[in-house]
Design goal:
The structure is a single chain. By secondary structure, this protein is of the alpha+beta class. The protein has one domain: Zincin-like (2-Layer Sandwich). 55% of the residues lie in helices and 20% in strands. It has a five-stranded mixed sheet, with helices on one face. Helix 1 runs parallel beside helix 3 and helix 2 runs antiparallel to helix 3. The radius of gyration is 19 Å and the shape is elongated. The model has no long low-confidence stretch (mean pLDDT 93). The chain binds zinc ion (ZN). Zinc ion binds next to helix 2 and helix 3. The site of zinc ion has 4 residues, from helix 2 and helix 3.
């Protein structure tokens, strides 16, 4: 006699597999969807963009940060103030796109921050930067240098 406990376990495993397949398919779709109509306002203290058929808008806090960029559930997007220096405008905006997309995907759809939302956000950051005429490798190197400095190593 198969116990209902075993049936429940099997069903939970099937559901889990389906959820993982759905997540993977959704991430693939998101990777192909462009971020549109990116706008900065209030002197680069606000970003709005269209993604996945929706419009998202967040405040940008510019101050000394431990990480170059991150986001909070209540506080919007945070970018280190060093990113506002001359010649870094495209980098600053690309990072803001990254944090906005990541925040949107985690809060709106419950994507996992590191292995799902971050991966999509990095692709959209690159797309934005390159469309603005920026160099991806130079951008990554400068963000990494600043990150290493802020982290104190
Ligand atoms: Zn990220």
């Amino acid at each position: 006699m198969a116990s209902s406990g075993n049936k429940r376990k099997r069903y939970a495993a099937v559901r889990k597999r389906r959820e993982e397949a759905l997540r993977a398919a959704f991430v693939k779709v998101l990777m192909r969807s462009p971020v549109k109509d990116v706008r900065f306002s209030e002197g680069n203290r606000r970003i709005s963009l269209s993604f996945a058929g929706e419009r998202a808008a967040y405040a940008i806090r510019v101050q000394r940060e431990v990480y170059v960029g991150h986001w909070g559930r209540k506080s919007g997007i945070h970018i280190d103030r060093a990113m506002l220096s001359k010649g870094r405008s495209k980098s600053f905006k690309a990072l803001a796109v990254h944090e906005a997309v990541e925040k949107f995907l985690v809060e709106r759809y419950g994507l996992r921050e590191d292995e799902e939302a971050h991966v999509v956000a990095t692709a959209k950051e690159r797309q934005y930067l390159e469309r603005a005429g920026g160099d991806w490798n130079a951008h990554q190197a400068s963000v990494y240098r600043l990150w290493a400095k802020l982290d104190g190593h």
